[in-house]
Amino acid sequence: MIAAVRSGPQCGDDSEEARRVRELARFYGVRSQRLAAQLGFDLRATA
C-alpha cells in the first residue's frame, strides 16, 4: 500500500511520499513507530 521512498537527494521529509505517509499515519491515529509497524506502516522509509 505504501511504497518505500528510495534513498537519494530528493528523499527528504518534505517529499510527496513522506507527506502522504504522515497524513495516512495521522488519519489512522498512529502515534508510535511500534504501532505503525504493527499496522504495516514503515515511517522510517520516509527518512
Helix content: 40-55%
Q: State the end-to-end CA separation.
A: 18 Å
Specify Rg, calculated over alpha carbons: 10 Å
Query: H/E series, N to C?
Result: HH
How many structural units, i.e. domains?
A: 1
Give the helix tally: 2
Looking at the structure, what is the overall shape? globular
Task: Count the beta strands.
Answer: 0
Overall mean pLDDT score?
65
Major sheet: size, sense and barrel closure?
Answer: none
Q: Which spans have pLDDT < 50 for at least 5 consecutive residues?
A: 5-11
Secondary-structure content class: mainly alpha
Q: How much strand content do the residues show? A: under 5%
Describe the structure.
With 47 residues, the protein is mostly helical. It has one domain. 40% of the residues lie in helices and 0% in strands. The protein has helices at 16-27, 33-39. The chain starts with 15 loop residues before the first helix and ends in an 8-residue tail after the last helix. 11% of the residues are buried. Residues 5-11 have low confidence and may be disordered.
Provide a concise account of the structure shown.
The protein is built from two helices and no strands. It is an all-alpha fold.
Topology:
Blueprint: H1 16-27, H2 33-39
Question: Which tags fit this structure?
Answer:
47 residues; mainly alpha; 2 helices
